[in-house]
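Q: For a teaching session next week I want to show students how multiple molecules come together into a single three-dimensional assembly. I've collected the sequence lines for a complex. Could you give me the predicted structure tokens for the whole thing so I can convert them for display?
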Amino acid sequence: MGMKAIHFGGGNIGRGFVAEFLHTAGYEVVFIDVMDNIINELQNTKSYQVTEVSEAGETTKTITNYRAINSKTHEQDVVEEISTADIVTCAVGPNILKFIAPVIAKGIDIRSTPKPLAVIACENAIGATDTLRGHIESHTDSERLETMGERAQYANSAIDRIVPAQAPNSGLNVRIEKFYEWVVEKGPFGNVGHPNIPAIHWVDHLEPYIERKLFTVNTSHATAAYYGRYAGKKTIAEAMHDSYIRGVVRDVLKETASLIIDKHEIEAQEQQEYVETIIARISNPYLEDSVERVGRAPVRKLGRKERFIGPAAQLAERGMKYDSLLGSVEMALRFQNVKDDAESVELATILKENAPADATVQLTGLERTHPLFSAVVKVVDQVQSEAKETGQPRI
Ligand SMILES: NC(=O)C1=CN([C@@H]2O[C@H](COP(=O)(O)OP(=O)(O)OC[C@H]3O[C@@H](n4cnc5c(N)ncnc54)[C@H](O)[C@@H]3O)[C@@H](O)[C@H]2O)C=CC1
Ligand SMILES: O=P(O)(O)OC[C@H]1O[C@](O)(CO)[C@@H](O)[C@@H]1O
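A: Of course. Below is the structure for the complete assembly, covering every listed component.
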């Protein structure tokens, strides 16, 4: 029998990144989603196209050999597919992991195949597979936990590829950048060995890769989005074309680079080259990526281990400079009441209903005794005061 991958989330990264590389590696991909339109399209087509766009032109790949199941309406089918699969991946968003865990737990529990299932969460978050595993284990009978390792192995990953929102008439087809990076820890697979997926870079220690990625790509991208929206820019490319915003992004990246070089002993020259690649990537005018997509979910992005507070906290602990990152935090706090973004409404409510220190704790999870805490409280206070004066954040 051929290899089978179950992939949760038939969205942009699901179709344009994970499924592409699973398909190339020879897997049949079974997409699981909760959106009727995506499931229907996947069920009613035999192929879709992934087009890489860059100044060098366009390259198109055709993805075939997939099926799709709606987990909202056909949960038992999903459980059975998981029980005979080789790998489970997901790209649903870090906040959704808890919702997909129960069905994965049921599928793992009834497995009787000799090889354990490989589970790899593909989200923009540190330790996303660990988070998913925690939810799966909490939906597994305690007496079954001891033997879980015979049925499933869990590996964290870092994924990087810019997949903007797609044009409304594009159906399943996805336009993406050429660049990609998929790094996964290999230790958890032990003697069983990791899955054979050529696109994956297997490493012993993931932390340097995921921190470098999150604190360079995502920090700079989100900084451009929040400053860009504040300045009335529509796309990230437009924001990066603005010399002031470009300068701010560079200043922020100097701070995160100093952490990455100091903590992970990455050579300064290597980090500088990485930074230049990322600035070129996020400035790509062919991607038409909106500031709202890249800024989406500001509450998650202001989190303790996330792209701003994560590096700023570590810099503060080391007595190093972090004030440009605070500028990004300030702009993120102004991403309030944005259309179709529930977290931007939640952000506005939290800022409205709480004193600065309480709002800081609630949003960032920073400990009140942390060396970064008072600096963030000041920024929160500043944004709240503007709203009190004008009825809304300055924008
Ligand atoms: N778009 C990008 O450039 C990148 C995104 N990522 C990460 O990949 C993840 C997905 O992002 P996108 O693909 O851009 O988002 P998306 O919104 O295009 O796709 C998410 C998909 O998950 C589905 N979904 C939601 N709840 C579900 C559930 N309970 N069960 C099954 N499916 C469910 C949605 O219907 C949607 O199709 C996020 O964690 C994001 O941070 C990482 C790198 C790049
Ligand atoms: O939901 P998030 O964390 O913004 O994830 C999507 C982000 O990931 C990236 O693709 C980088 O890998 C950004 O382009 C994009 O904004």
